[in-house]
Design a protein that fits this description.
The complex is a heterodimer of chains A (about 270) and B (about 160). Chain A is mainly alpha-helical. Chain A contains eleven helices and no strands. Chain B is of the alpha/beta class and about 160 residues long. In chain B, strands 2-1-3-4-5 form a five-stranded mixed beta sheet. The chains are: A mainly alpha (about 270), B alpha/beta (about 160).
């Protein structure tokens, strides 16, 4: 088993064949095991998480040893324990920070999905207005307002052929499909389909946002010059103006309404 | 001898700068692409400010930072000021707001020394941001007396 061959394989494929690699990545705080796509190449996985060069080398050597214990791997000290990347407050550039703040709004909506579902199950019927409004804000805020900035602007500042970007596009596509299934369920008055779609969307977006906040955005930020940061913020501001700046205010009002409606149920579910 | 209790910006100090193994040979080109540079004297209508990335530097920074031209000034427009000693600083806020809104500068990078009196430059920029219609990214870099970058953060 030539380790070099595995360096160019998708991480999910490597973990499936060598579960110990997944364990090591989890110890390093790298969440590839739970990634729904897992096509990032092994050689890129640690690099994209911003480890110092010496720790990156040690991590890759340990992975190499798992794949082929007999292969001579260049490692200074095989017993060296990699300092686990301590949780840190991530500092974002202003345009990236704007996207993170939009994520915070989306996460607030995701947090209401369990009580909305519990309500469907308890009452035996669907509050169509609430679900339609959730779909409206997922479509308009999460997708057209937020994801559009990522796809039409931010990702153009990267090499879009890279797997990490392709994973994000794939997540966006999967998310849109979940929303379509919720709408179809509403139309057919099929509560189970609505629940399945909402749950699928919530799980996907929770992981997706974590990947972007903790990995993708810091990685992109590391590549941006001061000039590009300025251009990016200007492009985002222009996009937001074109869309209509009141979407954020309207979304905030909607979320506050959900809080009032589902506060007790949310507490019960904790 | 009693302990110094005045402004850290005025405190007398002497450094021993023994050169490390750094190549000191070769001549560098100036990266200054404009005149004037003092914040009172610059005009927001000047062509070199239009859409530029502005470096707003405290007066002392360029003396402390050996590679100021090469690493920080290159590719940027410049304005310098001293938030402790300059007169008429009220006009600084309006000048910076005009640079943001009329010259439509792309970004501001503020470079200050680590001494507390330099922080006034950050305060001036923040006031200018509040007066401006446009939102632009602002970065703050703090330089040590020995010419090291102590911090570099978007604010």
């Amino acid at each position: 088993m030539n380790v070099k061959v595995y360096m160019n394989k998708g991480i999910k494929e490597v973990i499936n064949e060598f579960p110990e690699v997944g364990t090591l990545l989890e110890e390093l705080g790298i969440g590839c095991v739970t990634c729904s796509v897992g096509t990032c190449l092994l050689k890129d996985v640690i690099k994209v998480h911003g480890f110092p060069a010496d720790q990156e080398r040690i991590a890759m050597s340990k992975i190499g040893k798992i794949i082929n214990p007999d292969e001579v791997i260049d490692i200074q000290d095989a017993q060296t324990v990699i300092e686990k990347k301590a949780p840190q407050v991530i500092k974002y550039s202003p345009p990236i920070k704007r996207l993170v703040e939009e994520h915070d709004m989306i996460k607030r909506l995701l947090a209401f999905i369990p009580p909305v579902i519990a309500d469907i199950q308890k009452e035996g019927g669907i509050d169509i207005k609430v679900i339609e409004d959730c779909v409206y804000y997922i479509r308009n805020y999460a997708d057209r307002f937020h994801h559009a900035k990522e796809e039409d602007i931010l990702f153009k500042y990267t090499d879009e052929s890279q797997d990490i970007i392709q994973v994000m596009y794939e997540d966006h596509k999967t998310g849109r499909n979940f929303v379509k299934s919720v709408e179809a369920g509403l139309k057919a008055c099929a509560g189970d389909d609505v629940i399945k779609g909402l749950n699928g969307y919530r799980e996907l977006l929770t992981q997706h946002i974590k990947k972007e906040d903790e990995i993708l955005y810091p990685w992109i930020d590391r590549t941006l010059t001061t000039k590009l940061v300025g251009e990016l913020l200007s492009s985002f501001s222009e996009a937001d103006r074109s869309f209509g700046l009141d979407i954020t205010e309207k979304f905030e009002i909607f979320l506050n309404g959900l809080d009032t409606k589902y506060r007790n149920l949310k507490e019960e579910l904790k | 001898m009693s302990e110094f209790s005045g402004c850290p910006g005025s405190r007398m100090m002497q450094f021993n700068n023994e050169s490390e193994n750094v190549a000191e040979n070769g001549k560098r080109s100036s990266q200054l692409a404009q005149w004037p540079i003092q914040l009172h004297l610059v005009s927001p209508q000047a062509p070199y400010f239009q859409g530029s990335d502005l470096l707003l530097s405290a007066d002392c920074v360029a003396y402390a930072l050996a590679d100021f031209h090469k690493d920080y000034l290159k590719g940027k427009s410049l304005a310098i000021a001293c938030p402790k000693l300059d007169d008429g600083q009220d006009s600084y806020v309006g000048k910076l707001a005009a640079l943001i809104d009329e010259a439509r500068i792309n970004t501001i990078t503020i470079m200050i020394m680590q001494v507390p009196c330099c922080r006034g430059l950050l305060s001036i920029v923040k006031q200018a941001q509040q007066q401006s219609k446009r939102e632009i990214p602002v970065k703050l870099m703090v330089v040590s007396l020995q010419g090291e970058i102590l911090s570099e953060d978007w604010i």
